[in-house]
Task: structure prediction
Amino acid sequence: MPAIEPRDAVDNPGDETDQGTILRVYDQHAAAEYERLGRSLLHRVEFVLTAELLDEFVVPGAEVLDAGSGPGRYAEYLLGRGCRVGLTDLSADSLQLFEERIEPRLADRVLFCRQGTATDLGWLPSGSFDAVLLMGPLYHLVGHDERRTALQEARRVLRPGGVLVAAYISPYRPLMQAVEEGDQREVEHLRAGGTTVHLGMQQHRSWPREARAELDAAGFEILRTRSLQGLAALMDRDTIAAQDPETFFAMLRATCEVPDLLGATLHFVCVARRPPA
Result:
């Protein structure tokens, strides 16, 4: 497997996003981020509902770019399905954790493991991937121009007809908290989506309508939008822990694409396509 390559243009002084803080946080919490998607039923459903979309839209044997891969949980899943995957992320520790963990039988399917940012993929040729994952950049990039650049770069490196799978964080939870606390200013701030802070990092929170508008403006054809926690985001932890996993996942699966509920979640994901030439 290719060794981690040196980072490129991580600290761009023109960016609105504080990439140095993101790098430090994910270096510090790389192992916790890998474990997060298995920590509880609420976290597991995020992985399960995302993996189902990967099964549907990313064919075995596809060449995939995981931009903002973190420690590579989804990259590892796709490698296990016979895909060839290239990873890039700001956090060198996250990439190192991936390399240390990946099974030897899968290592020859790793195209590269390179430190960098989703807004600068100029080192990759155009039209070189069947699918691109943006499972973090579109909420870590707080500037509209930065998110637009990441989407333009993703579209450029996709082959015609290639698929983008992009994750977003909803304003739902902090908006609900602001209402509970009577913080009218924060309510007004989050009604249209906006920036919040988590672990010292700014995060852009998007409603599904904003996400779809950005994808449309970047030239993508939107195929699906799916809530990743859905009604479980309304439930307390003890109630979730008491659920039968199979039944719980089935109920969330049955409701995760109801249009009127898409924003009432922690995360949602959009699947979009670069139109055929």
Remarks:
- The chain has one domain: 19-169+206-273.
- Strands lie at 63-67, 84-89, 110-115, 129-134, 158-169, 194-198, 201-205, 221-227, 267-273.
- The two ends are 33 Å apart (CA to CA).
